[in-house]
């Protein structure tokens, strides 16, 4: 399994100097460490890239073929993990910027994504969502914009219409 921390750390629960330094530099989060330990304890072959703790939900980014393992039979694993972490888990597959946007906005439907060219030559993706769906989003638009940038390096802005 591929985890943000090494296997020895996941097993012992104490971070080695390499993993500790990744944590200090912000390359991994406390949630990455915590989830890695829990998964190791669970004893199943489940890996992930990042775990991000937001206000209401923990978002886990993993390879697409790992999503089923995270959910487990009848949702068993997801339930165990949510209980241990004390928060609902949302597992999304590693994908392109557009796929990631759709995953984050779900269950709300994206009306469209337009590329906007900024004066400095960079681009941003404008994600159009219905205003009446705003309350159905799992997190604030600002939080979503920040998280998507940290995951994909892509700039987005959410536009309600
Ligand atoms: Zn380590």
CATH topology of the largest domain: GMP Synthetase, Chain A, domain 3
The geometry reads as: globular
What binds here, in terms of ligands, is: zinc ion
Give the strand content.
Answer: 15-25%
Uncertain runs are none
- Separation of the first and last Cα atoms: 43 Å
Number of domains: 2
CATH architectural name of the largest domain: 2-Layer Sandwich
Write structural notes for this entry.
The strands form two sheets. Strands 1-2-3 form a three-stranded mixed sheet, sandwiched between helices. The relative contact order is 0.12. The mean pLDDT is 92. It has two domains: 7-93, K homology (KH) domain (GMP Synthetase, Chain A, domain 3, 2-Layer Sandwich); 97-160, GMP Synthetase, Chain A, domain 3 (2-Layer Sandwich). The chain contains seven helices and six strands; from the N terminus they run H-H-H-E-E-H-H-E-H-E-E-H-E. With 161 residues, the protein is an alpha/beta fold. The longest helix is centred in the N-terminal third of the chain and has 13 residues, at 30-42. It has helices at 7-12, 17-24, 30-42, 67-71, 76-85, 97-105, 141-152; strands at 50-53, 57-62, 88-93, 112-117, 123-129, 156-160. Strand 1 (50-53) and strand 2 (57-62) form a beta hairpin. Zinc ion is lined by residues 5-6, 8-9, 15-16, 18-19.
Question: What's the SSE blueprint?
Answer:
Blueprint: H1 7-12, H2 17-24, H3 30-42, E1 50-53, E2 57-62, H4 67-71, H5 76-85, E3 88-93, H6 97-105, E4 112-117, E5 123-129, H7 141-152, E6 156-160
Parallel strand pairs: 2-3, 5-6
Antiparallel strand pairs: 1-2, 4-5
Bound molecules: zinc ion (ZN).
